[in-house]
Description:
Blueprint lengths: L18 H16 L11 E6 L5 H12 L3 E5 L12 H8 L5 E5 L3 H10 L4 E5 L5 H15 L6 E5 L4 H13 L2 E5 L8 H10 L2 E4 L2 H5 L4 E4 L11 H7 L7 H4 L7 E4 L11 H4 L6 H19 L6
Parallel strand pairs: 1-2, 1-3, 3-4, 5-6, 5-8, 6-7, 8-9
Helix pairs in contact: 1-12, 2-12, 3-4, 5-6, 5-12, 6-7
Amino acid sequence: MPHTHPPHRDFLNIADFSPTETFALLDLAERMRTGAYVGKPLAGKALAMIFMKSSTRTRVSFEVGVTQLGGTAHFLSPRDVQLGRGEPIADTARVLDRYVHGIMIRTFAHADVETLAEYARVPIINGLTDLSHPCQILADVLTIQQHLGDIRGKTVAWIGDGNNMANSWIEAAAHLGFSLRVACPEGYDPDAEFLRRGVASGMVQVRRDPREAVAGADVVTTDVWASMGQEEEHAKRALAFALYQVDASLMALAAPHAIFLHCLPAHRGEEVTAEVLDGPQSVVWDEAENRLHIQKAIMAALMGNEPL
């Protein structure tokens, strides 16, 4: 008998949900965070988790989240799956969707996630690519709303590398209606297409001076200067980003109520000082926890038919 699947949706980038759906997703995640939601929409369901990049927060938050929603999670590293030996992604997709009800993948090339979504008949969740990191950004938005209220109308300052986090921040600003100031050194700008759309929306500005980006901001956020796979560029990047460290003097330019975010892991003394990361304005541990809650909401919606 043919193996059949109901129609499904994927979550590869922020805009895969409409703005209305995204705010409903954030509301659901907030109910999960506060313990008001006790449903088990993944009972009897399984999530395959493909990790081509190592992880702490992504792996544990997805595993625990699936379990709390009543399902099972199955960790697959390059050593565990034939992708690591050259099996086409399309073939992996067509095999896994016979076994599981959703697939989360954390990998390098965004095109690989798109191929997985093209061939799999179950929901695909982007756990991170070199292009975007939508789960993390929604966790960050959840954290902002937890501490500062509705994100609409707020100002976020991104300081540092124009990496996957910056790309997803740009997409989120245009999508959710908050202002974003991106401060990157020359040669390290975000993806050109993300940036073009973000600037065209009127919600995104690029500044070279991090002090201009931070001035009066509600949120200051950064990431490591050399992402996974860029370790050999560390010395070059440390020189290029020397003026982009988030320290106490930079944070002092933000609004008095401003909070500091970092997706972690952080390098104290490089992109952020210990004084800021471990200081009273830092909410990075709430931010890390909120990966669990937003991903539970995403899985409940995509795999568990939770209405948004």
